[in-house]
Amino acid sequence: MTFPVGLRGRVTAVALLLIPIILLINFVVGPLIEAYTGHTDDIVAMQEDIIRYRRVIGELPSLKAAAARLEQAKPLAPFLLTGSNAAIAAAGLQRRLQDVAKEHGVRIVSLRVQPPVPEGPLERISVQARLQANGRGLRDALYGLEAGTPYLFVDSLNINTGARRRGSNYDNLQVRMTLSGLRTPDRNKGAGATNG
User: Fold this and answer.
1) What is the dihedral sign for C-alpha 28, 33, 35, 36?
2) In this predicted structure, what is the pLDDT of residue 13?
3) 163 and 137 share a domain?
4) How far apart are CA 77 and CA 183, in angstroms?
5) pTM of the model
6) What is the pLDDT of residue 92?
7) How many CA atoms lie within 13 A of 76 on its CB side?
8) Which candidate in 47, 50, 83, 175 could, as Cys together with 89 as Cys, close a disulfide (CB 3.0–4.6 Å)?
């Protein structure tokens, strides 16, 4: 095999020399540089994360102090049922229903306390009630229950009328409802389970 001579031979020799160099750069050096810069970006991102985490950790004592002040201030207390345990809170809920019913001429047929149910950081205390009322008394009683404090919620409401007679103005409504309120649960769950 003979190689070209002169200018054409020199160009061919340079091309044969450059081809392995170009292949080496494209398939070995290039990927190594990309991997290095990729790892460098990852290291920079991790360093930024470490700085952010250190800042958050530095804020931890002030956040704990703020949480303790909030716990001590108890800003939700006026809106929650009171009582040292679930049974006392349920009794307070029943008393509130009885007071509002008496005030608006609603007759309580029966009351039944439901077991407490966790509701996020709070506990839901519920009472199922059967009532007899006229339309205006029921309306005013429902408003009185939901508009005051502590906050109470009518979770379910079923209203049946007696046999409708000519000229009846809904004076004999049969009502089934579930009324509930929220309270701060007992710190000692064992005591709450035995008391409630």
Assistant:
1) positive
2) 82
3) yes
4) 8
5) 0.58
6) 93
7) 13
8) 83
